[in-house]
Design brief:
single chain; 123 residues; mainly alpha; 5 helices
Length: 123
């Protein structure tokens, strides 16, 4: 059940992009939301996400969400990265899901999975 009456039950990319655009418009931030500025902000937020993991061992990094304080930081930085990416896509007219789908298809052609050779489970 959706506990927050102000939050829609199901979210989608265009809906989130509209909320971000409305948020920026209400604060008159649109002049600052140029592709260059949004790309720079995206890079900064990605670096802040990396910073959380910077000195962790691989094992520690795999357990980062076990600590509620660190988990909250990770979620906040992931949200910031996604927000700037969605805003950049909106400004440039890029459909992020279509772009990702096309990239996966190119990578599947470029890096085909190795063929299995006569082992268990064949035939």
């Amino acid at each position: 059940m959706n506990e927050d009456p102000d939050r829609p039950a199901a979210l989608d990319v265009p809906q989130l992009q509209r909320r971000l655009a409305d948020f920026a418009a209400a604060r008159h931030w649109q002049p600052y939301h140029t592709p260059k500025n949004l790309a720079a902000a995206l890079s900064v937020e990605a670096a802040e996400l990396v910073e959380i993991f910077q000195w962790l061992t691989p094992e520690e990094s795999a357990r980062v969400m076990d600590d509620p304080g660190t988990a909250h930081r990770v979620e906040d930085e992931v949200a910031d990265v996604l927000a700037y990416l969605l805003q950049l896509c909106e400004v440039l007219g890029v459909d992020p899901l279509a772009a990702l789908d096309a990239k996966i298809a190119r990578n599947e052609r470029r890096f085909p999975a190795p063929q299995r050779s006569g082992g268990e489970g064949d035939g």
